[in-house]
Write a structure and sequence with these properties.
Length: about 775
């Protein structure tokens, strides 16, 4: 809705600046109502919900110098002659709309244009023959995320003022044309961002014109399949270089800085390449001002040089997924006072990292999958958000002074920790994940566990816990994943488990924890890539940051899950314990649960009919208990059930064999002598009163996957569809390559969201609402 009436408009005819960003406006663009805004110089309508395209009425805004129509749902082409006639335009932002077609040639009238951001649309065509070649006043251009088919840098042959080129692409069809060899650029760039642009298709390793640039401050040529050795010349030629992003290319060889000190370099990302060898001893002296160093996913090896402790501004150090070995230098754990993310996971580090020198105060410490030894320190660890020491050789007790006040994710699985859960650490409302599976903890679950009021994941599996399952667990209403399997818990399943949500609460994903993480004061845009550093873990918007990985079993598969899935899936696993008594009927109220595993206990009584209300259930395992009675036929309502196992109980009667149940094979029912009907060989008609001879378990799998009866096919089809969707999601978590691609996409998009959120919060003078 356009907020101004025509009467009010009369008074606004001298208006020079109009900012209506994020005001919830809708309908078509209001240019018609702005007919006498001939003095208007700056117009910001971004972040509203208009429809249609740019109308000829825009021609009335003849003084317009800057216009932002970003994220407002426009479509159509830019082919509006009245728009091209706004000759005073210096600044155009059309980010994230649905504009399409080629860039119209009339744009070359805009001879004053210095800032053009058309990223996130569906513009297409051959950029080499586009009007951009004549827009020689351009200083800033962002062409990212469109459908352009051809691009060549000689497009900018006549541009002398150009400072920023951003071209992030997700378009596989893009062809980057070879540069004209004789071409010498007239410009000196400050920022070059070219991501995912298939630069390997160029002859030669690098863009030739880059050899002549010496004022570069930001270079991002990530995801571009480039190979060759580390481009040391880029650093040598550009002494002001602050950020270099070579992530996800195919660079090889050692990363070696032969001479000189690169005092301006703040941010270096060489991750996901094929670099190898040792790091040079004096690395910390060569790049002493570094704030972010990401060497993850390469083949680096050897000891970490102690000079790394000389990088006194270091904030983020990611060395994960390499083959580094030796001890972590004392200089790093003692001196890195600015560090907040330290990721050493998946290497060969050994030794005792929590020695008396350990003085780090971090947001995230990731040491998983190394060979660290020693005990957790008996002084409070100053770690917020993530502490992951999984799969090392840590021993000893959990110190009761382990300060979990701020830790959100504590992952200690796969060590040799012993002792009981100290009550003192269970008083933390910040803890979301507690994963201590596969250690040697003993004792019972203390009643004080109800202090962990925000816990979403509890995995105690594979320890020696005993005693009854504390009813206080039922107070942990947010739990989605509870895995108590493979312990010695006894007694009955608490009847109150239905108080736990197991996924019933509103999902927490896509809830941004706020813009504050960026510090609005240091608003560094328009160089979007700057956001990479300011993004802290809390700002990622997801409840489970990428470094939280949980193992659990579902549908007979033990997998590592991470990210969104942890927020979506709900699981109760009590298998391999000594639980007795009946299955509480109230478990049937866990209507959002996806997997329940009560196998290998001593449970008695019937399978509750109420389980037919577990409409999201995909995996149900009640095998190896003493259950009796019939398999309730109402369970056939569970349309998503893909794994069902009741073998080795004392169930009787006819096996349900319709809908999903027609897909289960006899292995699901074995060891129940009184069950009958297909898929079991025993028919239900020949029931005589004498106890039947025990069945010889048949190993042969004579059910064939294609023997699906037709009425059931449609159900299975829709189920498979859902499973396919989950499959895609899980592939993203299992396949690092796809994950990488998807995340980088999502990541970049996410920054844009922030960009606009920030834009509307900037508090510009003259703002009329918000
Ligand atoms: C793109 O346009 C340029 C200039 O008009 C032309 O030389 C080139 O062949 C075109 N490329 C393609 C793939 O059409
Ligand atoms: C650059 O300018 C020259 C001289 O004005 C012209 O001949 C040439 O075509 C222009 N190049 C491009 C790519 O527009
Ligand atoms: C940049 O480095 C390359 C390769 O070492 C060299 O050929 C070129 O002259 C250098 N350019 C400048 C401006 O120093
Ligand atoms: C380092 O790079 C890897 C791979 O490119 C990425 O997954 C990871 O998130 C980066 N680390 C940090 C701390 O940003
Ligand atoms: C990692 O380094 C160790 C020596 O520290 C070596 O034995 C091993 O082969 C290396 N692994 C790989 C994958 O390079
Ligand atoms: C739990 O922590 C709060 C705040 O840190 C404190 O006030 C309270 O006394 C603690 N409770 C117990 C039982 O330790
Ligand atoms: C149970 O946990 C122990 C370690 O405590 C492990 O060795 C064993 O494989 C686990 N059993 C199952 C069935 O997961
Ligand atoms: C239930 O748990 C047991 C033991 O952890 C495991 O072997 C089995 O595969 C699980 N059942 C399902 C259906 O995932
Ligand atoms: C399923 O849930 C509904 C609503 O909560 C309840 O009325 C019904 O009795 C439940 N069915 C069974 C079999 O428990
Ligand atoms: C199994 O169930 C039958 C009745 O269906 C009962 O007669 C028998 O005693 C039960 N066996 C055990 C071991 O509980």
């Amino acid at each position: 809705m356009w907020p101004l009436s025509s009467k009010e408009l009369v008074y606004l005819s001298n208006l020079e600046v109009l900012i209506l960003a994020g005001c919830g406006l809708n309908g078509s663009l209001p240019f018609k109502d702005m007919a006498n805004f001939s003095s208007l110089e700056i117009l910001d309508l971004s972040d509203n919900a208009f429809t249609g395209s740019i109308t000829p009425y825009i021609g009335a805004l003849s003084s317009l110098k800057a216009i932002s129509l970003s994220v407002i749902g426009l479509n159509g082409t830019l082919n509006t002659p009245e728009f091209c006639a706004l000759k005073k335009l210096e600044h155009i932002e059309l980010v994230d709309n649905d504009f399409e077609g080629m860039l119209p040639s009339c744009l070359n009238n805009l001879t004053s244009l210095s800032y053009l951001d058309i990223s996130g649309n569906r513009f297409n065509g051959n950029l080499s023959s586009s009007p951009i070649a004549s827009l020689t006043s351009l200083e800033y251009i962002d062409l990212s995320y469109n459908l352009f088919e051809v691009f060549s840098f000689s497009l900018f042959a006549n541009h002398s003022k150009l400072k920023v080129i951003q071209f992030l692409s997700d378009n596989n069809k893009l062809v980057i044309e070879n540069e004209n060899h004789s071409w010498d650029p007239l410009f000196q760039l400050k920022v070059l961002v070219l991501s995912n642009c298939n630069l390997n298709k160029l002859s030669g390793n690098f863009l030739r014109f880059l050899l002549n640039q010496h004022e570069l401050e930001v270079v991002d040529i990530s995801h571009s399949k480039l190979n060759g050795s580390f481009p040391i010349w880029l650093l040598e030629n550009n002494t002001r270089l602050q950020r270099l992003n070579l992530r996800s290319n195919s660079f090889t060889g050692e990363f070696h800085l032969p001479s000189d000190h690169y005092m301006n370099l703040r941010w270096l990302d060489l991750s996901d390449n094929h670099f190898d060898g040792k790091l040079q001893e004096n690395i910390g002296k060569r790049i002493p001002k570094l704030e972010t160093l990401n060497l993850s996913q390469n083949y680096f090896e050897g000891n970490l040089p102690s000079s790394i402790g000389d990088m006194s501004n270091l904030e983020i150090l990611d060395l994960s997924f390499n083959n580094f070995s030796g001890e972590v230098p004392m200089e790093l754990v003692a001196n890195c006072t600015s560090c907040y993310i330290l990721r050493l996971s998946n290497n060969n580090f050994h030794g005792d990292i929590f020695s008396k020198h350990f003085k780090l105060s971090l947001t995230s410490l990731e040491l998983q999958n190394n060979n660290f030894i020693g005990t957790l320190p008996v002084v409070p660890l100053k770690i917020q958000v993530v502490l992951n020491i999984s799969n090392n050789h840590m021993t000893g007790l959990l110190p009761s002074c382990l300060n979990l006040q701020y830790v959100e994710h504590l992952l200690l699985q796969g060590n040799k920790l012993t002792g009981s859960l100290p009550k003192a650490i269970l008083n933390s409302s910040s803890l979301v994940t507690l994963d201590i599976r596969d250690n040697s903890f003993i004792g019972s679950i203390p009643d004080e566990i109800d202090g962990l009021s925000n816990l979403k994941v509890l995995s105690l599996s594979g320890n020696h816990f005993s005693g009854v399952i504390s009813k206080q667990l039922c107070q942990l209403k947010r739990i989605g994943i509870m895995d108590l399997s493979n312990n010695s818990f006894s007694g009955t399943i608490p009847y109150c488990f239905h108080n736990i949500t197991f996924g019933k609460l509103a999902r927490s994903y896509f809830v941004y924890t706020g813009v504050s993480a960026f510090g609005i004061g240091s608003f560094l845009l328009p160089y979007k890539s700057f956001l990479y550093t300011t993004l802290r873990i809390q700002g990622s918007g997801f409840l489970f940051p990428e470094q939280v990985e949980i193992v659990f079993v579902m549908k007979y598969r033990s997998d590592l899950y991470k990210g969104l899935i942890l927020d979506m899936v709900s699981v109760l696993d009590l298998s391999f314990n000594k639980l007795t008594g009946e299955i509480p009927r109230t478990l049937g109220q866990l209507s959002s649960i996806h997997a329940m595993n009560l196998s290998y206990n001593q449970l008695t009584g019937p399978i509750p009919k109420s389980f037919s209300n577990l409409t999201q259930l995909e995996s149900l395992d009640l095998s190896h208990n003493n259950l009796n009675g019939e398999i309730p036929s109402v369970l056939t309502n569970l349309t998503f059930l893909a794994a069902f196992n009741v073998n080795h109980n004392n169930l009787s009667g006819k096996v349900p064999n319709i809908k999903q149940f027609s897909t289960f094979e006899k292995s699901s029912y074995e060891g129940n002598p009184f069950l009958c009907g297909p898929p079991l060989e025993k028919s239900c008609t020949d029931i005589d009163e004498s106890p039947p001879s025990p069945q010889i378990p048949s190993q042969a799998n004579d059910g064939k996957w294609y023997e699906v009866n037709l009425p059931v096919f449609s159900t299975i089809f829709s189920v498979s569809y859902v499973i396919f969707f989950l499959g895609v999601v899980s592939i993203l978590y299992i396949n690092p390559h796809w994950r990488q691609r998807c995340f980088n996409l999502v990541e970049d998009r996410m920054y844009w969201c922030y960009f606009f959120a920030l834009n509307t919060l900037k508090g510009l003078p003259g703002r009329m609402c918000h």
